Amino acid sequence: MSEAGSRLEHVSESGFHEAGPGTSLIDPCPGEPAQVLDALVAAIADTAPEELEPWRLTDRRLIAELATAQVRATRAQARWLALLAEAEAREATQRELGLQTANWVTNQNTHWARSARDEVRFAVRLAEAPVVGAALGRGEVSVEQARVIVTGLSRLPVELDAGEREQVAEHLVELAGEFGPYGLSRLANRAVEVVAPEAGEDADRRALERIEAEQMRDRYVSWRRDPDGGWILRGKLGKVAGAQVVGLLRAMASRHRSAVLLTSEEISHAQAAADALVTLADHYSSCGEAPQYGADRPRVLVNIDYDVLVGKLGTATLLNTGDRITAREARRLACDAGILPVVMGGDSVPLDVGRERRLFTSTLRQLVIRRDEGCAFPGCDRGPAECEVHHILSWLLGGATSLSNGVLLCTFHHHVVEPDPKDPNAGWLIRLDARGNPEIGAPPGRGAPPGERRWRQHHRYRT
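and the corresponding structure tokens:
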């Protein structure tokens, strides 16, 4: 029996035994859990993976298998990166297939184009730092830690010789057992002090200058679609620009989340931040300063049948992307949007296009703003620039476009109060009090006796 097999048998005899059919694995052995886990991880790591369903493992064995799987995955990733670096150095895919290495990776349908380029770049840097590559191959550092270390090594002063660079790499690999990727990223910028203390302060200054230049060079925002038509945004900003954007989003998201929670709706911090980003876009668009794109200002174009718009079951289509949206969302957009009627002939051929009409003109909108001063939903503090004009009685049901039938609502609360044409009285309602100020009525039974409606008013109309 091999040494690894003997160790596994010893650990098993110490407190683990194979389960019979229909039973779950193993009773934990007495003693220190950490010591048993370390012994078990060491034994499992040198043996073939056991084909046991995770649910059959005790908690201790599950953790041990999890740690072992992580080491094996890291070793496999190290092998992949080593092969990738060698392929890039040889230009193997270019010579054999006519593809750059990153293009070949993308062509395997496993990576986005940007992530493929990043992977190749990382593999090349890792090959240039054999100390880090060897540690990754042994599973002593994770891929994330290795990425941070090689990035730090690339920023070392040019006057450091190969020996000093290797010393820095060895020092950072040793620290990987104590620090995660974030901590290592901070230590990597100061690692030169270990091998060249006399140059530490000047090296630190120059490292910061290089980092700032790299952040300016590498800044980006990209977007892609997920399978259900949603948008996934990614990006990288420099320290100062990132702090500005994140600070603004954090402040807006915190305020927005507080307002949403007052309606008894659930909203996470991440959802609030997403809504804050949309609010910024809405605000910029409403200012009328957006530049032209495609011979027109940026806007969302919706195609919807008139019968569906006024309440018939159906869907609408975003002409910008071809995606379908719910009729409810289209009706909300129609509250404060330009409407362009198109007469269609057979086979859906456009025959005539009417004149666009603005449902709430700029003059009428200003009157609504003067009266409401911002979102009229109780507890919301969104200003007029962040609001849309909503028809109190839906224009789909014959409601007039007038001061007495309009109310300012932020995008979120506009979603909340948008009625269902099939049952307009089932959701939230809005009415004007004797002084002409809006009041909001919750759905029947919410905060009121069954069948009754609780009416509330924003504090600005009561003070």
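(Above: one complete record from the training split.) The first strand starts at residue 220 and ends at 225.
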